[in-house]
Every structure is written in structure tokens, then in C-alpha cells.
């Protein structure tokens, strides 16, 4: 689990996770910079036991709930535009 707000009951967990990234430089000379950005992710996880005793976990996550576009860079200086549309994923609990 990442940082954020996590609310839970016995079988249900809700999460709200802001990701805050500062500005990044694209090259070794630090002459090209990507601006800072913030993204909000949300998720839910539900656990229950089947009649045979097997524990089942269902989960869903939505990345970039607000649908904001943002620039990101990797260690090789490759720039990508991320954001809209939001991503809804199931599994990977």
C-alpha cells in the first residue's frame, strides 16, 4: 500500500492516495524541465470467505480520478504525456 488515507471496516477497505511529484529535469545539463504535478488515485478492496473456507479478495482501483494531464520523464530523459482518461483496474490487490 502507498501513502494516503485508508478507511476500513472488517471486510472493506477504501483508499484515497494523492501522488505529488516535484519538477524534473530532462537532461544532464538541467536545461529542460518538466513541471510539477499531482494525481489522485482511489480504490476499494473487499474480502470475504467462501463456504469452503477459502478467502476471496476483490479490488478495484481508479488512477487519476480527476483526469488531469501531466508530463512525466523516466531515467533516460524520455518524456511522456500521462493523465486523461482515468484508468480503472481490477485485481492486483
Structure write-up:
The structure is a single chain. The protein is 0% helix and 56% strand. With 93 residues, the chain is mostly beta strands. Strand 7 and strand 8 (79-82) form a beta hairpin. The protein starts with a strand and ends with a strand.
Taking Cα atoms only, what radius of gyration do you get, to the nearest Å?
A: 18 Å
Number of helices: 0
Low-confidence stretches: none
Give the helices and strands as they follow along the chain.
Answer: EEEEEEEEE
Helix percentage: under 10%
Spatial strand arrangement across the major sheet: 1-2-5-6-9
Shape: elongated
- In total, the number of strands is 9
Mean pLDDT: 81
Strand content range: over 45%
Major sheet: size, sense and barrel closure?
A: 5 strands, antiparallel
Straight-line distance between termini? 9 Å
